[in-house]
Specification:
Blueprint lengths: L18 E4 L1 H5 L9 H14 L3 E6 L19 H8 L7 E7 L5 H4 L10 E6 L4 H14 L2 E6 L7 H12 L5 E6 L6 H18 L2 E6 L6 H11 L3 E4 L13 H7 L8 H9 L1 H6 L8 H8 L5 H7 L7 H9 L3
Parallel strand pairs: 1-2, 1-8, 2-3, 3-4, 4-5, 5-6, 6-7, 7-8
Helix pairs in contact: 2-10, 6-7, 7-8, 12-13, 12-14
Length: 329
Amino acid sequence: MLEEIQKKGSLLSYRKDIHILDCTIRDGGLMNDFRFEDQFVKNVYNACIKAGVDYMEFGYKGSKEVFSEEDFGCWKFTSEEDLRRIVGTNDTKLKISVMADVDRTNFNEDVLPKSESVIDMIRIACYIHQIPSALEMVNNFHEKGYETSVNIMAVSHVTESELNEALEILGQSKVDCIYLVDSFGVYCPEQIRTIAKKYLAIGDKYSKKIGIHAHNNQQLAFANTIEALTLGVSMLDATITSLGRGAGNCPVELLLGFLKNPKYHQRPILKIIEEDIPKLREQGVKWGYDIPYMITAQMNMHPRSALKNINKPDWDKFVEFYDEMTIED
């Protein structure tokens, strides 16, 4: 099955099955505790509509029993009231997404039936050992009328046999889309090619969409995303100027310029980059490729240690950080 998967399309063609999901507010919120001003969120929403982006992810469905409202902005919890303050009834082609972490979401109480919500898709983030809990959430959200995805995090720490079993289980479930997630920005395009074929084989077998969520720790998020899409991956995550946790994600402006689908338009995103992104940087929100993120990726480590140091004023102890990361216990 894996050998049968060939590249789809060319640089001068486009595939109608491709969908872009902008997760600027959700992934970017990890860098400022989700304290975005309403006007910025509204500007991103309007830009996504004008740019032809297919989905926009606003934030998490975090449980207030797990996270304090004093510590985070509203997009950590993404209530219906907050969403409607930005989108109204969302009478547009843009679909609205939120993310729900396993064990950190009170999905029975905090997720309304689809008939009462402007949300279209709920993406469930889990680690490999949480697959049974993820499936419980998938079933709950499907019964309520939502599209769903399961995003298995930290797959670079998962054995091949575990991943094969997890994908088979997800293939047999009700989930609509299965995401290949490069949580630590570890992979290069050749590795993405191999892993994407594994996901796509399950997608073909069970008629599931396959997505990719890449991180830019080695400045490969865009390269990895387009490598996956040429093989047949159809749900593509991206953020404006790569705004996301740590080194960020695949830049949506690069994707819009690369894809040849005439429904996509780059100009509205460039306007956000020109007018809104500088204000975030002035507020002290810091993201994007940096040496410590490169080091953690090459070590196949979570970037939390890099995040801790980079946020210190004028910190540039790269050699010291490298030595700390590579020292043997």
